[in-house]
Design a protein that fits this description.
Radius of gyration: 15 Å
Largest sheet: none
Distance between the termini: 10 Å
Strand content: under 5%
Oligomer: single chain
Structural class: mainly alpha
Number of domains: 1
Number of helices: 4
């Protein structure tokens, strides 16, 4: 398989995980149950799940009052998009295999 396909599969999986984590944490918050640590939510966003985490944050209306989520998650998305665009437009070619 092509490396790009593997990267795309990884990104889909990590974004689905981020989305599910936001939904699960919101459900747990309503039940006043054990919560997912905020650091874990940010970690998933940093390793590539920022779009899923942001979608979950706004769809479930979860963590939107916390400034570090309201501004931090979109900043992570923007930085990751900039990195991808810069790498794509870079004159250097990356060959993994």
């Amino acid at each position: 398989m092509n490396v790009i396909i593997w990267i795309a599969i990884y990104l889909v999986i990590v974004n689905v995980i981020g989305f599910i984590m936001m939904g699960a944490d919101k459900a747990r918050a309503r039940k006043r149950a054990w919560r997912i640590p905020e650091a874990h939510l940010f970690l998933v966003a940093l390793i590539g799940g920022s779009i899923g985490t942001c979608l979950g944050m706004y769809l479930f209306r979860h963590k939107t009052r916390h400034w570090y989520f309201a501004y931090g998650m979109p900043v992570i998305v923007i930085l990751q998009v900039i990195i991808v665009v810069v790498l794509y437009l870079s004159p250097v070619q990356f060959k993994l295999f």
